[in-house]
């Protein structure tokens, strides 16, 4: 086995790599391409485009879309679901940054 086969391409572990076509993404989520287009229109996810102009989705975007579908299935309006997900994502990022800052502060020697 070659080293390329044992280690694989770097994008295999990249959550932001646009690996999924619209059809495949919709199939994986159990939804329609129209639902994915509506998430793009609501500015929740903006898929990258292939050279031919086709939408391509990353695993991260599919997680957001799955969360949106979950909320919509529970009766939340699409726009509200998108806003909830954006706020959840911002909160998670703020908590991550806060934790990093706390760790850095704990690593520094006390002043005085």
TrEMBL record:
InterPro entries: DNA-bd_dom_put_sf, MerR-type_HTH_dom, MerR_fam. It holds the Pfam family MerR_1. Residues 19-87 form the HTH merR-type domain. Keywords: DNA-binding. The keyword DNA-binding applies. It comes from the Bacteria. PANTHER family: HTH MERR-TYPE DOMAIN-CONTAINING PROTEIN, REDOX-CYCLING DRUG-SENSING TRANSCRIPTIONAL ACTIVATOR SOXR. This is MerR family transcriptional regulator.
């Amino acid at each position: 086995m070659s080293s390329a086969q044992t280690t694989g391409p770097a994008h295999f572990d990249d959550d932001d790599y646009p690996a999924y076509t619209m059809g495949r993404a919709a199939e994986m989520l159990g939804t329609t391409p129209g639902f994915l287009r509506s998430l793009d229109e609501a500015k929740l996810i903006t898929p990258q485009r292939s050279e031919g102009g086709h939408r391509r989705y990353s695993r991260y975007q599919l997680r957001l879309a799955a969360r949106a579908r979950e909320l919509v299935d529970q009766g939340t309006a699409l726009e509200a679901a998108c806003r909830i997900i954006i706020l959840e994502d911002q909160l998670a990022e703020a908590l991550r940054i806060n934790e990093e800052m706390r760790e850095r502060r704990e690593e520094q020697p006390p002043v005085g």
